[in-house]
Design a protein that fits this description.
globular; single chain; two-stranded antiparallel sheet; 5-stranded antiparallel β-sheet; alpha+beta
Length: about 170
Amino acid sequence: MILRSIRASQLIILLAVMAFFSSCGSRRSTAYKDTRGARAAEVLSEVKNKSLYRFINDWTGVRYRLGGLDKRGVDCSGFALLLNKEIYGLNLPRRSRDQADVIKEKNVSQLKEGDLIFFSFGGNGIDHVGVYLNHGYFVHASTTRGVIVDDLSLPAYQRAMIKAGPVKD
């Protein structure tokens, strides 16, 4: 009887230790994701143009669809086109490489809310566009995550960035 009681105690302790270590691991992962998401939410809350804020909020999470121009799916250049038309009253070309031709290029450190940022991930010229927000963050239609606020300082973006600036008057 005493032996059975000791084994039950050991089993309870073992289960408690396993639960503790598994919860610690998941906490670390969640904290990292929460911190990254919290920073993006903070950046979005500091957007000066409230129409831009509402537009991004409305489109966040819409999935990526090549050639898409609606809430069923949108690609990066379509998202930039729709945002610029609705928020700034500007007409942009449809393709990101053509959109890059209608900006006044400036240094990344001088970017202002609403400026366009162009990337080359494929190595054959411009193939992606996003819209600068503030504090080194931008919004874009990611091929894997849909419309999302992202950190421009991530190495993948730093390596692929080609040019940035506002649309020419």
